[in-house]
């Protein structure tokens, strides 16, 4: 498990980027201004114009990449923050990480099941968007809480 | 599972911090083990037994 973790020095900076980009992303999403930054509109490859990847219609299109950029930043910083070593990484911190991952997986899919049964139509799009980041956010919060309790001991 | 790590550690005159350094874990982990909040792996159990100079059977019991 230890071998798979990122170095401890990335933990603080990735955490700052993660929570900051989550806030910015959330604000842009809820204020419906995801395409407000006009200079981020550029030509990108679109491989799924039809139902078949690389099929007829696949081409270069003009698109505002604010949401794509934020998604990449949130996922990369979130993964690095969640899976970077603690200052004193040992088997107990590894065990807490596994516990937090199990907990967040269960809670995340319980929420998805609930949303599947209660949210319909186009509104389900929002569920899919939240599902992209929910697991990472829940895991991160749970892990920080467990580690906080551990360090207080 | 219970353990007598605190007793053997005190006899050896070690602090939780010192014992942690000797077996390669943090002070908090030693504290969690002593208070039965965490059960160590076989590897850590054997290291503790080696450092505290007592058989594993004496250190841990069911």
Structure at a glance:
Chain A is built from 4 helices and 2 strands; from the N terminus they run H-E-E-H-H-H. Chain A is mainly alpha-helical. Chain B is mainly alpha-helical and 62 residues long.
Describe the structure.
The complex is a heterodimer of chains A (153) and B (62). Chain A is mainly alpha-helical. In chain A, 61% of the residues lie in helices and 8% in strands. Chain A contains four helices and two strands. Chain A is globular. The model of chain A has no long low-confidence stretch (mean pLDDT 91). Chain B is mostly helical. Chain B is built from five helices and two strands, in the order βαααααβ. In chain B, α2 packs across α3. Chain B is globular. At the A-B interface, α3 of A face α3 of B.
* Sheet/helix structural class of chain B: mainly alpha
The proportion of residues in beta strands of chain A is: 5-15%
Radius of gyration of chain B: 10 Å
User: H/E order of the elements of chain B?
Assistant: EHHHHHE
- Series of H and E elements of chain A: HEEHHH
Overall pLDDT confidence of chain A: 91
Strands of the widest sheet of chain A, in order across it, are 1-2
The low-confidence runs of chain A, each spanning 5 or more residues with pLDDT under 50, are: none
* DSSP summary, beta strand count of chain B: 2
Mean pLDDT of chain B: 94
Poorly predicted parts of chain B: none
Q: Please give the largest β-sheet of chain B.
A: 2 strands, antiparallel
Rounded to the nearest angstrom, the distance between the terminal CA atoms of chain A is: 24 Å
Helix content of chain A: 55-70%
Major sheet description of chain A: 2 strands, antiparallel
């Amino acid at each position: 498990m230890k071998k798979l973790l990122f170095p401890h020095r990335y933990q603080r900076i990735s955490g700052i980027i993660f929570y900051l980009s989550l806030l910015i992303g959330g604000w842009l999403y809820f204020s419906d201004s995801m395409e407000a930054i006009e200079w981020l509109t550029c030509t990108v490859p679109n491989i799924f114009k039809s139902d078949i990847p690389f099929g007829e219609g696949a081409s270069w299109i003009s698109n505002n990449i604010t949401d794509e950029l934020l998604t990449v930043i949130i996922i990369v910083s979130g993964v690095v923050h969640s899976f970077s070593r603690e200052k004193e990484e040992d088997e107990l911190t590894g065990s807490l990480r596994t516990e937090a991952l199990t907990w967040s997986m269960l809670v995340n899919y319980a929420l998805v099941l609930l949303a599947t049964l209660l949210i319909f139509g186009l509104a389900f799009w929002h569920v899919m968007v939240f599902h992209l980041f929910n697991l990472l956010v829940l895991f991160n919060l749970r892990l920080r809480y467990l580690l906080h309790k551990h360090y207080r001991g | 599972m219970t353990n007598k790590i605190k007793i053997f550690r005190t006899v050896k005159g070690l602090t939780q911090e010192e014992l942690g350094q000797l077996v390669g874990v943090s002070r908090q982990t030693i504290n969690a083990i002593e208070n039965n909040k965490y059960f160590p792996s076989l590897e850590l159990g054997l290291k503790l037994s080696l450092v505290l100079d007592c058989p594993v059977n004496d250190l841990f019991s069911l």
